[in-house]
Amino acid sequence: GFSVGDEKTIPVLNLSQVMQGSRTDSGAASPVICVGCHSGMPDTGFVTFVDHYPWRAVTASVQGANAGAVFTGQTPGGLAALQLPGWGPFTYAKQVWGPGLKIGVASLGLANPAAIDYSNGPDANKMPNLAWVNLESPNPGTVMGNWTSPSYTPGGDIMTGNAVGLIAHTNDLGGATFPDWSHDGSKILYASTVGAKSARLEMGKTDLYTVPFNMGSGGVATAVPGAASADKEEYYPAYSPDDRLIAFTSVRAGQVMYANPQAEISVIPASGGTPTRLRANDPPRCTGKTSPGVNNHWPKWSPDTAGGTEGKYYWIIFSSNRAGIPPVKSQYGPMRTVEISQLYMAPVVMNEFNVPTSYPAIYLWNQPTDSVNTTPAWSTFTIPPVQ
């Protein structure tokens, strides 16, 4: 972790510190083996992240001496929901975060939250559910086999006391992945897809949709005009802090989405319109690299905006492979390598006519160059100061 302007970074969570347990694909109790895709929580000293296969979810503190501790107030029912297989990254809204209602939303590959599934079904589900979890659910769930099934009632909303529920998104023929909750808590923005696999996106028609949250019941989903095109796959959406803009990643239709060098980032008004391709996609000419070709992906907005003479200033952080750092060997086979992603930051300015202007990216010089720096979360975190 770090603050903008810090000359270094600081480790805030190591695998050995994680106190919450996970489970193997058979459901047997297991320690967490991977700090995967993470999200900040409204309690700013904690994060939620996804463990390795079969993609169970975990909460952990990032607060120095308390690093790794389970989220304060997490109940047995909340833990049972997190330990379901097939979760993707979570999203939260402060407006739906109070005593007894600590709600997170994510995609869930498990077809039926009330049924045991030790197969690779959740992993192979190309059209996962959109689901919510109550981390402080008062219902402990039901012991089933060697795990606990969380309390779940089909069609129930978050006031039922259940630990997990599915969010309806009718008028959408795809599954729901990589959701982002509007800051006012009213709607969920997500990537509608028929090409999900292993908690990521592979190949298949993928567009951006929104659906009312409606206290967990959902409703009629609506495609985002301009980000639901026939010639592109649009994914990894993110609302700006005022819910005025959406940033997203895209590739040409029919291509693999995960770790695709052809990926680029655009922004669009939240109500829809013509996407603006960011100038930040383009590496400096002196590098000899061009975009598409450097995997610009996973945009996240600064939690704050500011006014200026040219309009309203927003900032985006994203990952890219443009740095030219040699790939490293993958732990999943001697013939596989992993590209070293680095983080970049770029401004977007909205003028009085609601026309966005983008600018080249700034390389964050303080980050380590011997690790894959990707899937950033930009939020107000309570972490130790960088010394």
Task: Detail the topology: elements first, then pairings.
Blueprint: E1 21-23, E2 29-31, E3 38-40, E4 46-50, E5 57-61, H1 76-82, E6 97-98, E7 101-108, H2 121-124, E8 129-134, E9 142-144, E10 147-149, E11 164-166, E12 168-170, E13 175-181, E14 187-193, E15 196-197, E16 200-201, E17 206-212, E18 218-220, E19 222-223, E20 232-239, E21 245-252, E22 264-269, E23 276-277, E24 297-301, E25 306-308, E26 311-320, E27 328-329, E28 337-338, E29 342-350, E30 356-358, E31 362-363
Parallel strand pairs: 12-18
Antiparallel strand pairs: 1-2, 3-4, 4-5, 6-7, 7-8, 8-11, 9-10, 13-14, 14-17, 15-16, 17-19, 20-21, 21-22, 22-23, 24-26, 25-26, 26-29, 27-28, 29-30, 29-31
Description:
- The protein is 3% helix and 35% strand.
- The chain is an all-beta fold.
- The strands form ten sheets. Strands 24, 25, 26, 29, 30 and 31 form a six-stranded antiparallel beta sheet that branches.
- The radius of gyration is 20 Å and the shape is globular.
- It starts with 20 loop residues before the first strand and ends in a 24-residue tail after the last strand.
Evaluate the radius of gyration: 20 Å
Give the overall average pLDDT.
94
Structural class: mainly beta
Please give the count of helices.
2
| Inertia-based shape | globular
Strand content: 35-45%
Question: How much helix is in the residues?
Answer: under 10%
Number of strands: 31
Spans where pLDDT lies below 50 across 5 or more residues: none
* N- and C-termini, Cα separation: 12 Å
Major beta sheet, specifics?
A: 6 strands, antiparallel
